């Protein structure tokens, strides 16, 4: 166990060696079926030994990949899932009726292979848009996958590898929290590094927990968590066709069902939101070609919504991102981005700091140590702090710098 994390409600603890298989009832795994040109895993699954209460949120794009339709139908059948099936290397998006048929076949094939009900399987895909799946390879992989599912860290690592595309690192986290006088685990895994923009950034995210919570309450909490975390990251301003965040709760920790009226609800909610925040920041830090994580903190706005809009505009500005990459303390780009966010702002009262270095006070330049600012901006995390001095609204957004490698990676994505 690492040192405890503290929230305004209750302490929860990060489980350093935990994973999506740590909550009771879950197994996971992955394998290479041939969708990727490399030998990295490209097909994975999470399986729950009991019907798990489930919830999901999806991309806001009007163009949505076939697996989203299949997953929506599975959840609509009763709000419970037994399994999540995921492939990388092919998004199965913009593939017409054949793509839909392939997504439905994936669901049916895994349900049969794993011995679970058809409507108990969710399907997700990520990768190149506009290409049909090589279903002969997918079928072979699905047939072998149930035997590869494990309840230890190995299974989780194989799953995390199977969902990656241009990601450089696997992204997972697990925490423990006391609920009903018992230890409950909340864990998550995610992928994402390009086509990342707020309002369900392009990502796949999977949360598992053994908490006794129903689908309706879980769905409301997942939306709240998404608004505070995944909807507050950006890499490049593009939104994907395949974004999906799914949560599954086995309930095997036991005890009274968690609802917003339960005395331990806030503790559980803070743990789940923390898991989503860690994954969201990991996605932002792993942005294609990125060298730095940028965290923008806006306070003094008229409302939290206003602060969020301003923070997302700043962290998504190509000029701000480029300045951070170049370690240039160009506060002018920051206030310019804030000013175009379309939110209330007094141009005479803005303070801006780069970490501990104040650069602007009441919208007037402050003499600061350029060398100290250069050294600060060379770090792998850059905090931009903006105080508008208008009200009590505040928000945090995350992103990354814009580098030469981002262009290189995306100039040859299909090859």
Give the arrangement of secondary structure elements.
Layout: E1 4-6, E2 11-14, E3 26-31, E4 43-58, H1 66-76, E5 80-90, H2 96-114, E6 121-128, H3 135-144, H4 153-162, E7 171-179, E8 182-191, E9 204-209, H5 215-228, E10 244-249, H6 265-285, E11 293-301, H7 304-316, H8 318-325, H9 331-339, E12 351-354, E13 357-361, E14 364-365, H10 370-377, E15 381-387, E16 393-400, H11 404-411
Parallel strand pairs: 5-6, 9-10, 11-15
Antiparallel strand pairs: 1-2, 2-7, 3-4, 4-5, 4-10, 7-8, 8-9, 11-16, 12-13, 12-15, 13-14
Function: Catalyzes two activities which are involved in the cyclic version of arginine biosynthesis: the synthesis of N-acetylglutamate from glutamate and acetyl-CoA as the acetyl donor, and of ornithine by transacetylation between N(2)-acetylornithine and glutamate.
Catalytic activity: L-glutamate + acetyl-CoA = N-acetyl-L-glutamate + CoA + H(+); N(2)-acetyl-L-ornithine + L-glutamate = N-acetyl-L-glutamate + L-ornithine
Family: Belongs to the ArgJ family.
């Amino acid at each position: 166990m690492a040192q405890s994390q503290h929230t305004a409600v209750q302490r929860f603890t990060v489980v350093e060696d935990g994973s999506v298989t740590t909550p009771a009832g879950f197994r996971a795994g992955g394998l290479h079926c041939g969708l990727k040109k490399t030998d990295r895993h490209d097909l994975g699954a999470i399986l729950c030994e009991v019907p798990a209460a489930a919830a999901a949120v999806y991309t806001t794009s009007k163009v949505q990949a076939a697996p989203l339709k299949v997953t929506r139908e599975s959840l609509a059948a009763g709000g419970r899932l037994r399994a999540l099936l995921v492939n990388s290397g092919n998004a199965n998006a913009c593939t017409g009726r054949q793509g839909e048929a392939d997504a439905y076949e994936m669901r049916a094939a895994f349900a049969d292979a794993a011995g679970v009900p058809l409507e108990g399987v969710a399907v997700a895909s990520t990768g190149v848009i506009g290409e049909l799946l090589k279903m002969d390879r997918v079928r072979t992989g699905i047939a072998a996958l149930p035997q590869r599912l494990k309840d230890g860290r190995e299974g989780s690592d194989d799953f995390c590898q199977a969902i990656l595309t241009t990601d450089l690192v696997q992204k997972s986290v697990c925490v423990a929290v006391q609920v009903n006088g018992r230890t409950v685990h909340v864990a998550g895994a995610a992928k994402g590094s390009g086509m990342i923009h707020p309002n369900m950034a392009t990502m796949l995210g999977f949360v598992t927990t053994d908490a006794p919570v129903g689908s309706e309450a879980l769905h409301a909490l997942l939306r709240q968590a998404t608004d505070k975390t995944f909807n507050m990251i950006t890499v490049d301003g593009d939104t994907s066709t395949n974004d999906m965040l799914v949560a599954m709760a086995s309930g095997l920790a036991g005890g009274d069902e968690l609802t917003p009226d339960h005395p331990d609800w806030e503790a559980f909610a803070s743990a789940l939101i923390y898991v989503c925040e860690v994954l969201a920041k990991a996605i932002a830090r792993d942005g294609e070609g990125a060298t730095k994580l940028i965290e923008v903190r806006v306070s003094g706005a008229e409302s939290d919504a206003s602060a969020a809009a301003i923070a997302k505009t700043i962290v998504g500005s190509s000029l701000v991102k480029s300045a951070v990459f170049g370690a240039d303390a160009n506060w002018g780009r920051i206030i310019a981005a804030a000013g175009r966010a379309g939110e209330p702002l007094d141009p005479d009262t803005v303070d801006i700091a780069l970490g501990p270095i104040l650069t602007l006070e009441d919208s007037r330049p402050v003499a600061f140590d350029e060398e100290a600012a250069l050294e600060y901006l060379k770090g792998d995390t850059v905090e931009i702090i903006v105080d508008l001095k208008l009200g009590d609204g505040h928000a945090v957004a995350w992103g990354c710098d814009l580098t030469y490698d981002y262009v290189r990676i995306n100039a040859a994505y299909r090859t």
